[in-house]
Amino acid sequence: MSVKIQNSPNRAAFDVQASQDLRSQFQKDPQAGLKAAAQQFETLFLQMVLKSMRDTVPADGLLQSDQTRFYNSLLDQQMAQNMASSGNGIGFARLIEQQLGQHLAGEASGETGGDISAILAGKGLPLDLPVARNLQYREVLSSLPTSAAYAAQTVTGPQGSTEAPASARDFVNQVWPHAVEASRSTGIPPQFLVAHSALESGWGKSEIRNPDGSSAHNLFGIKAGKSWTGATVDTVTTEYVDGKPQQVVEKFRAYGSYAEAFRDYAGLLRNSPRYSGVIGSQDGTEFARRLQQAGYATDPMYADKLARIINGPTLRQALIG
Length: 321
Fold this sequence. Notes:
The chain is mainly alpha-helical. The protein has 14 helices and 2 strands; from the N terminus they run H-H-H-H-H-H-H-H-H-H-E-E-H-H-H-H. A two-stranded antiparallel sheet has the order 1-2. It is globular, with a radius of gyration of 21 Å. InterPro entries: Flagellar_prot_FlgJ_N (IPR019301), FlgJ (IPR013377), Glycosyl_Hydrolase_73 (IPR051056), MGlyc_endo_b_GlcNAc-like_dom (IPR002901).
């Protein structure tokens, strides 16, 4: 029996359950799952195009505010999903489906390698990896017509460009599953959460460590505070007082694993009223700005630094793999 899992225009674009639904239904009907995944790719691309177009419109005026920008971003997401699922997009979904459909057919006859078959069967890379990574994006891009490939490169970076350092790719591979889990409970895209952990830990190279040198797994620089009853570690950190940096010793939370760190971070965002405006953020720059406004860090340039990572080539290339 065929299972219909195409993106529905009636489904909210920010529904964090969508990736999980795709994973489970993919196993029931790989061909329909491939079609839905291809539509997700086109949705992502269209969303970025709409955002770029909206960024050209002056953002001042009486009707401009954080709230209108937030709801405009939600509107753009929904419009992109509707265009891709209705067949009125730019044709990326059809091209991707045709390209990867060959692998699907080959898998059925035992003629393909393990990467694509693992994705299609849900046994290898999880389906809720970034769409570009999940669909072997570089292979797909090389098969697109010249004009379509060029358009895609303007968003994701052309083939042959400088790749992310191996350390950044290793870091993303290590924390990505935990970011996906945290995304489900916060509604924040996992790549934003990865970027935040990268900023706080220097892509894992400057993370907080216990006195014996082992990792405290605190990737988000969360301080212990009076209510914290778990393990702690004292470390030197930089705080800004009146805009000037000062070195101080603070007590930070220590975790047993990165998974525990991401769960605690997600809980902090969900349960603290000060971060209510951060929950559900779908625009990277807005996410960074709202974190700073909520008082996550004292660095006056914190939002700019985080936004540069979210929108920068290092994270993008690391996600592609």
